Q: What sequence folds into this?
């Protein structure tokens, strides 16, 4: 292929067939007319090879690590997206509350028609037949409202920060569920590997037992026992495979992906051991970082602002108004003086007005007072919830630290147990072939090996789960 540099690389580009046929034409020139069969075979092989390569590139299975699963989940999960929209909506409330600091401008226009039906006594020009057009525009600014506007604005800011903290809490919980789901899937796949290996070993044991039974070297009960153990191992393999499907579907659901998605999950590192962490360090990080603690603190500040708003209703509201009025009256009939002279009644009045107005609700039946007491009670409730949350976090941290320590010890012990169980099984298998052991002894070694491998897998999963729980309790990576 050295005579045609670059051609072989270019024919692998998906979606472009020109280089493929150029390559085949170059091949065509190198063969004589009498060797068409060989040429046809080579052309067919080359075409199939290129199509397989292009298809493999186009339909390659996507491989996702834990970090990619977390990124996809935080991008797609509907519940987390809803929490972010809630934080965004709370930000709009701040702009709404800020508008109360600015003056308001209003305008109005009206047209009225008055038709007199009957009258007695001196005529009142306001009730004569007429058309009235009125236009006004007013600029109003609140000067004082008992600090209600300021407290409402500050309350809106706390609400926005609380909504963001709630979104952070949703993200923290989503990360925890994705991590534990991912680790559960890895453990389920490891269980399948262990169960498959057990089935393969027991299959060979059945073959050996059948051979020994034919030579009357073992009783029939040993053969039956190996067959029963093989059947049980196949059942366990089926359960393990089904568990893989369940864990996979749950993980895909957290990332808002279809259950049929062509995704393969790969673990970046195994048995990663975190550095030791003391309870005081973990609890200090939790108080600082846990979103739910921040949510409760913001709720406490909001309750204080609500109480201040209720108390401010007992204070007056002072407002400055500037307005412009334009009124046009068009009477149907002219007026007449005492001497019988007629005159035009029509008039148009235009004027500016400015003033400062104060209103004071002196008594409202105690409504504002009871609202204030209610919000003061809410403050006490939230303080109790903060204490309860701190106790829950403290307990969770202690349990996670104990679980980490216990799982770390089991990981070290189970690794040694697996090594010893493999050596024990290999020794029993060699002794059986040499005729100095029995099938029950080999089956017992098999059981010990499967149990040791299962214990190791559970120890790793328990450690990973405990590490995720500690991260959840501390509000992030310690």
A:
């Amino acid at each position: 292929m050295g005579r045609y540099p670059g051609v072989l690389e270019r024919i692998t580009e998906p979606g472009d067939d020109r280089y493929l046929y150029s390559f085949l034409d170059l091949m065509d020139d190198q063969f004589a007319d009498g060797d068409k069969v060989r040429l046809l075979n080579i052309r067919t092989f080359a075409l199939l090879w290129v199509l397989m390569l292009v298809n493999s590139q186009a339909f390659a299975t996507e491989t996702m690590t834990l970090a990619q699963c977390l990124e996809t989940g935080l991008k797609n999960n509907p519940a987390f997206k809803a929490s972010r929209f809630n934080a965004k909506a709370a930000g709009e409330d701040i702009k709404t509350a800020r508008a109360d600091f600015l003056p308001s401008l209003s305008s109005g226009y009206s047209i009225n028609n008055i038709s007199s039906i009957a009258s007695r006594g001196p005529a009142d020009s306001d009730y004569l037949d007429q058309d009235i057009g009125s236009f006004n525009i007013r600029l109003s600014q609140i000067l004082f409202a008992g600090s209600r506007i300021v407290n409402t604005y500050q309350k809106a800011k706390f609400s926005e920060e609380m909504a963001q903290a709630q979104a952070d809490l949703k993200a923290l919980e989503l990360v925890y569920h994705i991590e534990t789901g991912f680790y559960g899937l890895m453990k389920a796949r490891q269980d399948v590997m262990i169960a498959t290996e057990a089935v393969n070993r027991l299959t060979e044991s059945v073959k050996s037992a059948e051979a020994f039974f034919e030579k009357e070297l073992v009783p029939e009960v040993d053969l039956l026992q190996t067959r029963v153990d093989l059947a049980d191992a196949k059942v366990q393999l089926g359960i393990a495979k089904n568990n893989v499907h369940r864990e996979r579907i749950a993980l895909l659901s957290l990332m808002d992906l279809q259950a049929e998605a062509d995704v393969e999950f790969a673990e970046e590192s195994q048995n990663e051991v975190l550095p030791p962490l003391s309870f005081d360090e973990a609890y200090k990080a939790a108080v600082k970082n846990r979103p739910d603690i921040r949510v409760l603190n913001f709720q406490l500040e909001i309750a204080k602002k609500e109480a201040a708003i209720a108390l401010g209703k007992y204070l007056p509201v002072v407002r400055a108004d500037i307005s412009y009025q334009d009124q046009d009256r068009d009477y149907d009939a002219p007026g007449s003086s005492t001497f019988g002279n007629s005159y035009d009644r029509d008039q148009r009045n235009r004027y500016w007005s400015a003033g400062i107005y104060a209103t004071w609700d002196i008594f409202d039946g105690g409504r504002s007072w009871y609202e204030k007491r209610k919000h003061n009670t809410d403050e006490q409730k939230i303080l109790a919830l903060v204490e309860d949350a701190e106790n829950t976090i403290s307990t969770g941290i202690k349990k996670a630290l104990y679980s980490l320590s216990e799982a770390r010890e089991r990981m070290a012990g189970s690794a040694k147990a697996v090594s010893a169980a493999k050596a024990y099984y290999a020794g029993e298998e060699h002794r059986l072939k040499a005729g100095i052991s029995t099938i029950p002894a080999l089956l017992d070694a098999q059981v010990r090996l499967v149990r040791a491998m299962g214990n190791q897998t559970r120890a790793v999963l328990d450690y990973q789960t405990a590490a995720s729980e500690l991260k959840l309790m501390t509000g992030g990576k310690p």
